[in-house]
Structures are given as structure tokens and as C-alpha cells.
Amino acid sequence: MPISKPFQRWVAGCLLSALSAAAIAQAAQPHVVVLATGGTIAGAGASAANSATYAAAKVPVEKLLAGLPELSQVAKVTGEQVFQIASESFTNAHLLQLAQRVSALAKQADVDGIVVTHGTDTLEETAYFLNLVVRSSKPIVVVGSMRPGTALSADGALNLYDAVSVAASKDSAGKGVLVTMNDEIQSGRDVSKTINIKTEAFKSQWGPLGMVVEGKNYWFRAPVKRHTTQSEFNIDEIQALPAVDIVYGYGNMNTTGIEAYGKAGVKALVHAGTGNGSVAAQAVDALKALRAQGVQVVRAARVPDGFVLRNAEQPDDKYDWVVAHDLRPQKARILAMVALTKTRDSKELQRIFWEY
Known about the structure:
- By secondary structure, this protein is an alpha/beta fold.
- The protein has two domains: 30-230, L-asparaginase, N-terminal domain (Rossmann fold, 3-Layer(aba) Sandwich); 243-355, 3-Layer(aba) Sandwich (Rossmann fold).
- The chain has helices at 5-28, 61-66, 92-106, 123-133, 156-167, 256-264, 281-292, 316-319, 329-339, 346-355; strands at residues 31-38, 76-85, 113-117, 140-143, 178-181, 184-187, 192-193, 202-203, 210-213, 216-219, 244-248, 268-273, 296-301, 322-323.
- The longest helix is centred in the first third of the chain and has 24 residues, at 5-28.
- The chain starts with a helix and ends with a helix.
């Protein structure tokens, strides 16, 4: 039986209405840009049993996104391959380039959120750097994985899905740069990698900001330290980062490293001390000599939790040293580099360490 023309027109109208509704729904979705830099989340192992033995930075961003069709229900997602490296090889130049791209995207009216996929080894350093220098209230989320996508129980796909969900949510705005891993939403300032063989590797001694479960955010606290839009630092004004390094405190410590860094021309040296940022007696004079040469000395602690008290263990006022407060040595290095682009005054540096 031939189909009547009125019925054909009705069917065509229904199809057009459905297509129009789908187009409107897609247009209404937030736009999230995924900036890929490599790492384990883009890694591949020889077999599904390889969860700790694999090659990082192998899978391009297009393949990562194509493997997660569920993202289309969360946001309009586009990807860019910024780098394809393991994160232990991140340099200051990589930090600057990435932050400049994040800043540029954040200024675009058609971008609602940004996700950075990153290797876990230095993920916390990059997240903190972005937290300090990108002036935007838009959600910026850094994410990685502890297992490559080829492994049994790989965590990367869910971590990425959660990161896009957080970046697409208006309630994530204004909370600084976030790290979303293992269902938790962490502050990029506070979080650190605490273990290298478990998926719950990233922790903060102050606890997560919230959790993301099945694409929904649950918030429990907000950061109080200065960040992003409240920061006095701006990636658009930073062309280079001064040399800042770290020397490690330990029993029977010698001064070889301190003296070598001084000769290398560092602008600041972070001392990762024992306990409350303690400095061995034989290292005190070497650090004082370094400060006399104009090098800033930042006293941090190698222990995972707690914070360094000023003028406890060492007379910081007398020696004109700076304390890192609750920042671990690797993050103290990040803040020292950024701060030194603005000031070389030790009192100003200490203020910055209290506020950020």
C-alpha cells in the first residue's frame, strides 16, 4: 500500500523536530577542552596484566576521547595534544607553554572548562603552578591515572570522565585548579602523590574538597589560600622562571649539594629538612653563606604532613630565611619560582608563602 503524502510530511516533520531538539541540546552543552600532555593515562602495557610496567605517553588525545563515548552526554568535548611526554620530564618551559595555552583557552567565550591530562609523577606541581598563574574562575581540572588504559581495572577512563564532569559543572567555578582522581576532587594546591602502586595515590592532609560520583559533584569544603583570580601572578606577564632547586636533608648530610647549587647560580634553594624542617648543624653555615650571596633559602620539610613553624628549629628571622609553611618541597619550589618573578625581598617572599 502506498504511503500517503500527508503521512510522509508528518514523518519528515517528526524527524526534523527530533534533529532540531538534538541540535539545540548539543548547542546548550558546556564546551570542555581536553589538553593532553602524555603520562600514564596515555600509556600502554604489553599485556592486560601489566599495571605497573608499561610505556607512558603513547595514546593520542583523539584515541583517549574516542574510547569514552559517554563524554558526549556530559559536554561538547574537544581535544588538543600539547605534549606527549612522561611527566617526570616536565621542564619549566613545559609549565610556561601549558599555562599560556590554558590561559588563552580560558579567555575564550566558547570554552566553559578545561581538563589537562597529565602524568602523575609531577601532576601536583603542574596543578599548583596553574593555580598560581592562570587568572580565570572557569573550572580547570588536572587528571591522570595510576594504570595504563591497557591494564585490568584501568582507572584512567573513569578519572577522565569525572574530570570532564567536574570541568563542565558551574559549581566547580572559582574553586581554583582542581585534581580529580579516584572519585575525589582535590585542591591542586594541597594534593600530593603519596604512593606509586595504588589508584588512591593522591591525598591531601587537609582532605578532599569533594567527590564526584556518576557525574555529579558533592562539595564539602572550599580552599582559602589565594589562587587564580585572586592571585597577584599572571602567566601573561611571565616570560621565564628563575632557577630554584631542592637539597635533601638526611643523617650524615654533607654540604656538597648546597655549595654546588650556589655555584650553579640558583636564585633560591629549598632545603627539604627532616621533621619540622630541621637543618643539620654542618649544613647551617653553608646555607647562611648562600643567603649572604643573595640566594633565598626556603626551609621546608621532607615529611608528608604537618607544616614548618617559623623560628622553630632554626632562627629564621636571624638568618633571613623563608619557611615553606605546609607546602612540600616540590611545591615550595614552584611557589618560589613564581614569587621570584615579582620580588627578591625575603619578607615579601614569606608573605607570599603564608598567603598562597
